[in-house]
Amino acid sequence: MNDITERRLALSHMWVAFIAFILACFMGEYQVLERSGLFEALDSSTVYFASVSTHGVLMAYVLTTFFIMGFGYYTASTSLNVPIWNKQLAWGGFWLALLGVVLAAVPLLMGLASVLYTFYPPIQAHYIFYVGATLLIVGSWVWCGIMIVMFLQWKQANPGKPVPLAMFATTMNALLWLWTSAGVALESLFLILPWAFGWTDTIDVGMARTLFAWTLHPIVYFWLIPAYIAFYTLLPKQAGSYLFSDELARAAFIVLVVFSLPIGFHHLYMDPEQAKGWKLLHSVGTFIVSVPTFMTGFTVIASLEVAGRLRGGKGLFGWIGSLQWTNTMVLSVILSLLMLIFGGFGGIVNASYAMNAMIHNTAWVPGHFHLIFAGTTVIMYFSVAYYLWPILTNKPIFSNNLALVQLWTWFIGMSILSTPWHVLGLLGQPRRISSVVYNNLMTLSWKPYELMMILGGLVMLGSACLFIYVIFKTQFSATEEVFEGEVEYAETYHPVTDLPEYLNDIKIWNKVIAVLMFISFGIPILQFFFLDTYDSSAWGY
Amino acid sequence: MHIDPLEKKWAQIVLAICAFFVVVIMSDALFHSVNAPSNVETINSATLHLSKEFAEDNLGVQVDENGDITVRMVAGRYSFFPKRISVPAETKLTFRWVSIDVLHGVHIPMTNMSTMIVPGFVAEIETSFPKPGDYPVLCNEYCGLGHDHMWSKIDVVEKDQWKAPQATSMGGDEK
Predict the structure, then answer these.
(1) Residues A164, A170, A171, A175: what is their CA dihedral angle, to the nearest 10 degrees?
(2) Which of A54, A167, A182, A273 could bond A206 through an S-S bridge, CB–CB 3.0 to 4.6 Å?
(3) Does A173 touch chain B (CB under 8 A)?
(4) Total structural domains in chain A?
(5) In what helix (H) or strand (E) does residue B75 lie, and over which residues does it extend?
(6) Are residues B144 and B71 in the same domain?
(7) Looking at beta carbons, which residues of chain B come within 8 Å of A291?
(8) B8 belongs to a structural domain
């Protein structure tokens, strides 16, 4: 199949993602330096909060969304072995989302949108920022639509056959993103945009926070699912192994998608505008959504163990040593899982309704999400890029050794960065401060950890530059060598024979999600129409 | 559909782990009343100074006729008011927090006094401080470019050395 357009689509999306990523990495290192107070010349809360806002938007919205769209297009095309449906529309979505990013970037960089990536009202940014963010979301909906159409078309053409796992998971992620982004889209269209344009004078802060919480949890699963797709469908072949169970992989994706949605109130545990019964309900759901991650850990480690034993590893742990540690996919999965274990441990603390009070909005929280997002998730974005770049550009990887060094340094840097970050949270340091000016002896104990964070950030910045260098050189070096390979998806250990329809369908899960969302968000949102709430006017910052 | 016996076992272990966590959290919440601040009580943040409860004279620590202590605090850019208060250790305290402007959050390190302060709502939280000392009260939600400077102080003193503040005009016994 001539898939030149598909490859261009994938490369264009991923380059936007990784350019956003590298810019944001420089901002991250600047932020730990500024925050430490070591360099007086750097001290400026104006620049700091503009930088934190931009860093958050670039990493959380641009890197993720564009990477997921690019990876998704190529996964759809290669796993179904068909061209992308409606390529003009796909390009339209790309340009629309990119226009959104550029529009949002202007006020962000000018310091006119220092409202952080969570943009909690009633602090108000320049309206162009909200317009840009909304366009980015609308552009990503185009991708969701194309994934769902391709899924349904393939099913129609191949009745009774299991949809390839990679495509099943990608489409579930598209469904997840449509539901996830609906919360923030409602907030944006009905509350923030009319207020930012000056059509309304005040804003319902409680409702805005509730709608944002709707988005705030499942969005992290939207980011994480591509990593899981690589775990399940790309890793086994690379490790020289088989996927342990195709059916349970589908079940894991389904539970992840369905139960990541109705649980957003664990972000509102400490909020006064929602009652404790709803918070408890959402906390139970939060523990349910940990089940598929536990199952994923099992399946992925089982696939690795099979690989290790096939390569001659013996004994209880001997198979670990005999894994192919020089394969970037194998190495990144091992490192990703290690970070997932520690990050997951922290996550259980956050999820625990009462224990959360100890760490809520402290430095622990960014420590946790950097470990899970920049650690577990983004390291898999790297290895997917290392895997796809030769396929997309028909050129061999520039240097496998440099890529291995890059993955190790990312892991080491993340360990040095996020460990002290967690400790600072336990020592009471709030997140989102640009300097420590509390006149209290307790803050002296924070200093050594802040210095460690500078080092960790520096290692990660070096690693990030190395990543860009390797993919850039792979694509643009003049070389005679031609790489001819295509994406090889995992074969299953147990062939899939009789797949029940519910493991091969998205419509039924869409209905289940609708019911669960109504139960968990219906009354908490409707209450704002019945309560005597007092809206807030707009505030600068 | 095929499920490996090992997977089945692991799934059971995982479900047991999650069930254990849920049971612990639920029993703490339902039987020991360990709950996050969730009183869903609205207030007009724009007219706090005119409200009876959060008028300037009524802020800070108050003891009612039953000896129960309520601490009323206002968060506004960039401090918590009153800026310095004193409370007894090992005593049940009811904090009531409101914002006069934007979203804030507050925590007192090394204690479980933590809540978001959302404009338009009163955040109520009950706690007690086991150890006497000089604690900072910190804003933990970004509230503007001066956010770093948003903090105040609370002195936790030995229970038997603590003296209730003079009754204020609202407290009642004016002669």
Answers:
(1) 150
(2) A273
(3) no
(4) 1
(5) strand B69-76
(6) yes
(7) 11, 14-15, 18
(8) yes
Interface check for A356 against chain B (CB to CB < 8 A): the answer is yes
Cβ–Cβ gap A295/B10 under 8 Å:
yes
- CA-CA-CA-CA torsion sign (A109, A110, A116, A117): negative
Q: Let me know whether B58 and B3 are in one domain.
A: no
Please check whether residue B121 lies inside any domain of the structure. yes
From chain B, pick out residues whose CB is under 8 angstroms from the CB of A201: none
Chosen for mutation from B73, B103, B111, B143 (greatest number of chain A CBs closer than 10 Å) is B103
> And the tokens for A533?
């709430």
Q: Could you tell me which chain A residue has the CA closest to the CA of B46?
A: A536
Q: Checking phi first, is residue A119 left (phi over 0); if not, alpha (psi -120 to 50) or beta? A: left
DSSP string, A480-525: S--------PPPBSS------GGGS-SHHHHHHHHHHHHHHHHHHH
**B47 and B81, same domain (yes or no):** yes
Per-residue pLDDT of chain A (541 residues; tens, 9 = 90+): 678 999 999 999 999 999 999 999 999 999 999 999 999 899 999 999 999 999 999 999 999 999 999 999 999 999 999 999 999 999 999 999 999 999 999 999 999 999 999 999 999 999 999 999 999 999 999 999 999 999 999 999 999 899 999 999 999 999 999 999 999 999 999 999 999 999 999 999 999 999 999 999 999 999 999 999 999 999 999 999 999 889 999 999 999 999 999 999 999 999 999 999 999 999 999 999 999 999 999 999 999 999 999 999 999 999 999 999 999 999 999 999 999 999 999 999 999 988 999 999 999 999 999 999 999 999 999 999 999 999 999 999 999 999 999 999 999 999 999 999 999 999 999 999 999 999 888 899 999 999 999 999 999 999 999 999 999 999 999 888 999 999 999 998 888 878 899 999 999 999 999 999 999 999 999 999 999 999 999 999 9
CATH of the domain at B129: 2.60.40.420
Let me know: does B118 contact B100? Beta carbons within 8 Å: no
Q: How far apart are CA B141 and CA A455, in angstroms?
A: 26
B13 and B48 belong to one structural domain:
no
B116 and B145 in a single domain? The answer is yes
Q: How many residues does chain B have?
A: 175
* Catalytic sites of A, residue numbers: 217, 221, 368-370, 431-432
Q: Domain for residue B117, yes or no?
A: yes
Contact of A101 with A24, CB cutoff 8 Å: no
User: Does B141 share its domain with B124?
Assistant: yes
Domain coverage including residue B115: 41-161
CA distance B160 to chain A (A): 25
Nearest Cα of chain B lies from the Cα of A357 at a distance, in angstroms, of: 6
Residues of A in contact with B41 (CB under 8 A): 272
Q: Are residues B24 and B81 in the same domain?
A: no
Q: Is A280 on the interface with B (CB under 8 A)?
A: yes
ipTM above 0.90, yes or no: yes
| CB neighbour burial string for A499-527, b if at least 16 within 10 angstroms, e if fewer | beeebbbbeebeebbeebbeebbeebbeb
Tell me whether residue B167 is in a domain. no
Pick from A117, A99, A92: nearest CA to A27? A117
**Residue A259 C-alpha from the chain's centroid:** 17
- Residue A169's domain comprises 4-537
Cβ atoms of B77 and B67 closer than 8 Å: no
Closest CA relative to residue A301, chosen from A245, A363, A361, A380: A245
Number of domains in chain B: 2
Q: In b/e form, how buried is each residue of A445-465, taking b as 16+ CB within 10 angstroms?
A: ebeebbebbbebbbbbbbbbe
Which residues face A237 on adjacent strands?
A: none
Is A291's CB within 8 Å of B18's CB? yes
Same domain, B107 and B73: yes
